[in-house]
Amino acid sequence: MRRTPLPEDPTVTAPPVRPDPASGAHVLSGVEAEGARAIPKRHERPTLAREYVRAAAIIGVTTAVAAGVRSLVHVPDLEMLFLLAVMVVALTSGRRASVLAAVLAVASYDFFFVPPAYTFDVADARYVLTFAMMLGIGVVIGTLTLRVREQQRAAVSREQRTGALYALSRELGAAIDAPGVGTACVRAVAEAFGCEAMFLVAKARDELDLVAATPSDALLSTSECAVAEWVLEHGRPAGRGTETLPGEIVVCIPLRTWGDVLAVIAVRPPAEQSLAGEQRELLEALGRHAAVALDRVRLAEEARRAALRAKTEELRSRLLSAVSHDLRTPLATITGAGTLLLDESVVDPVLRRELTTSVVDEAERLERLVSNLLDMTRLDSGVVEPKREWVPLVEVVGAAMNRVERQLTGREVPIVLPDDLPLLSIDPILIQQLFVNVLENAAKYTPPGSAVEVRAAREGGTLVVDVADHGLGIPSGEEERVFERFHRAAKPGVRGVGLGLPIARAIAQAHGGRLTASNRGGGGAVFRLTLPIATPPEGSADAGNETPARKGAGA
Amino acid sequence: MSAPGPIVLVVEDELPVRRFLRAALSGHGYRVIEAGTFAEAEALAPSHNPDVFLLDLGLPDGDGVDLTRRLREWSRAPIIVLSARGREDDKVDALDAGADDYLTKPFGVNELLARLRVAVRHAGSTSAEQRVRFEVGPLRVDLARREVQVDGAEVHLTPTEYRVLALLVQHAGKMLTHRQILREVWGPHATAAHYVRVQMAELRKKIEADPARPRLLVTEPGVGYRLRDRID
User: Is the CB of A406 inside 8 Å of chain B's CB atoms?
Assistant: First the structure.
């Protein structure tokens, strides 16, 4: 989610105005909030009316039954029938309906059964007491049944709540990252309230990132983002049913353990409902669980990073010790030979020549090491973005061959490149370096005079180049290790740095390709470069399709 | 040697490198003038009118490419720039600014002397006596008769290939950047560098024994091409 600036600080005293998408007019959120609050009552009204009607019907039926009974047999206490009816109403309906039933029962009894009949007059004062008792019993029973029903409902919602929390904590236990926590949380919220829910993790102090939502494509509108951001900033709930921005459809609550808000849950209740009372409490309880899980995930992530740092640190110190060794050895030779050459008592021309040669050789070795280190560092730090150009493979291979000519002296190096290879979108310097490194590696680790083959082929959308040698091959299981930095195969007389192949692989990867090593059937190693083939630019195919000019043509 | 050797102006701020260059050059008949900075070079160059410039691209008080451009305003003497590996863009800039060649540090004496020889020889030939016939290894090019032969057999080139080859022959031994070739062959507004690469690949197929191991027409990745004028 992008940070959207709040139009103003939305507070209770200055309710913000938001555009009403339907009318295009701006609606004061306070006004709409009142409407929203009135809605639940409207919702209740039909139920209440139904209860009243039912209460009246029950009393009517009772009256008819009582009249029937009285016409058949003489029953002294018909009022008991009415009390039964009031109890029935109280058990099935609300308090108001039971009070209504009691009143109706009294009125009906009075009208139909208390002499003089069919009037509300009462001849005998005794009946007033009966009326009072009927009314009182009706109210008491109504109240009692209501209380029982409420307790029952509370027990059910407690159970639901416990169930929801339990389910959530079980899922949270398995979550290993913030999106995992978010997914578990939105699922629990959506199940508990049957509505859309979104989980936004605080990225920076004032930036939220939507990591999970139910349904998964749910999004927050701009004004809803503003609610979420207000919550992030102030650490208090906002949106529908709260004191802040009640006109919004969503309600957002902050997730925090201590200190800063870690995340925000945004819930979009079904139209015209708000989460109040127990529902809000449940939402907040779910939020607390999620907050603890989020904190745990964050700490785990920090621990992981610390471990990675330690590993990097270890690698760095390994690198440093390897480098300092590799730097010192040639330096020691150069210093030793140089000082000896200064010493005029050494006059043997053969010895002087040997010393000079070793100075030059070691200096060259130092140069290679420094170059490799520089390459590696630059590839590592991402400074080297391949400078892609459209290049024929034969040109880079040719340039690499020119550079390794000396190392490959005395070897057969057949190069097989298909004639119809397209131009490649590669950095010619880097890919040339890759081939130089792989070829130098072959020159170092295979017997002098043995052949090295270079073969290229197109395989669908990729180019595959194999550099195959006839050496001893790679010990099985070491195929990946040869690409590790400072890994040097144990071979007497070979003085490498252990960076050539790692650099080559890094170059391949920077081009979206791969460099792998394997052993070939007949002995020897194969280094395989795989590069994606892009669509060559226009004019690359026909640029070479001119017909040869006759001698003297174009003059 | 009876005639005094060519004058080389070495512009290099590192004293040890200068010492090595001085020793190497004066040992081979060159007369060496040294400058440690951009300003010093600008002051010394006009009064000595050197035959060759050896120019380090990383000077403490200025850019070697700028100095190349300044020198080119009045001098036609060959300029060879010295630059580190990995700074191919600098080399291209210097070549495009008018430098004739470059040497990648670190380099050996042999390489240095070879480049200087090529540069001086080129400077010696004026445009009037531009080479008409060129021969290296199995390749023979007769620009007057528009004839190209490899191992005595005539080779048929397309007009574009011929123009590229003719350009390379004119500057045999010298490094030509992609931009220079593009401008000379395709015109000043051409930009698609891959035209050059495609033509080079085609040309190699016709003049090289093994295009994957060029001996005559070598590539310096990221910089350009050089038609060798001698094969060792």
Answer: no
Are the CB atoms for A266 and A223 separated by under 8 Å? no
pLDDT, residue A94, reads 75
Of B175, B230, B164, B176, which is closest to residue B201 (Cα–Cα)? B164
As a whole number of angstroms, the distance between CA B29 and CA A111 comes to 143
Tokens of A63: 């009256």
Determine the residue of chain B that is closest to A394 in CA distance: B212
User: B128-138: per-residue pLDDT in tens?
Assistant: 356 788 899 99
Amino acid at A137: I
Q: Tell me the whole-structure pTM to 2 decimals.
A: 0.60
Torsion sign across C-alpha atoms A202, A207, A212, A214: positive
Q: Do A555 and B146 touch (CB under 8 A)?
A: yes
Q: Over range A130-159, report the average pLDDT.
A: 82
Q: What digits encode the pLDDT tens for the residues B110-134?
A: 889 988 988 888 777 654 356 788 8
Give the ipTM. Answer: 0.87
User: Would you call B192 and A546 a contact, using CB atoms and an 8 Å cutoff?
Assistant: no
In this structure, are residues A29 and A246 in contact, taking their beta carbons and an 8 Å threshold? yes
Q: Could you give the dihedral angle defined by the CA atoms of residues B215, B220, B223 and B225, in that order, rounded to the nearest 10 degrees?
A: 0
How many cross-chain Cβ pairs, A to B, lie less than 8 Å apart? 109
Tell whether A390 is within 8 A of chain B (Cβ).
yes
Q: What is the pLDDT of residues A20-56, one digit of tens each?
A: 444 443 333 333 333 333 333 344 455 778 888 888 8
Distance in angstroms (rounded) separating the CA atoms of residues A335 and A338 = 5
CB contact under 8 A, A401 and B213: yes
CB A539 to CB B192 under 8 A? yes
**Which range among A299-308, A325-334, A538-547, B149-158 has the greatest average pLDDT?**
B149-158
* Contacts by A471-474, CB closer than 8 A, 24 or more apart: A471/A442, A471/A445, A471/A446, A471/A447, A471/A523, A471/A524, A471/A525, A472/A445, A472/A446, A472/A523, A472/A524, A473/A519, A473/A520, A473/A523, A473/A524, A473/A525, A474/A517, A474/A518, A474/A519, A474/A525
Q: Residue A529: in which H helix or E strand, if any?
A: strand A525-532
Cβ partners under 8 Å of residue B200, min gap 6 = A395, B164, B217, B219, B225
CA distances for A442 relative to A128, A406, A413, A517, angstroms = 117, 13, 11, 12
**Close Cβ partners of B109 (under 8 Å, ≥ 6 residues apart):** B24
Q: How far is Cα of residue A197 from the mean position of the Cα atoms in its chain? A: 16
pLDDT, mean over chain A: 80
Q: Cβ contact (<8 Å) for A553 and B218?
A: no
- In the DSSP assignment, the letter for residue A17 is E
Distance (Å, rounded) from C-alpha A294 to C-alpha A267? 18
Two tokens, residue A239: 């949106």
Q: Report the candidate in A35, A36, A16, A34 with the shortest Cα–Cα distance to residue A26.
A: A16
Average pLDDT for B197-223 = 92
Count of CB atoms within 10 A of residue A345's CB?
5
C-alpha pair distances (Å), A340 with each of A151, A333, A334, B23, B50: 102, 11, 10, 20, 38
DSSP one-letter code for B6: P
β-strand B52-56 against B7-11: which pairing, if any?
parallel
**A342 interfaces chain B, CB cutoff of 8 Å:** no
B25 pLDDT higher than 80: yes
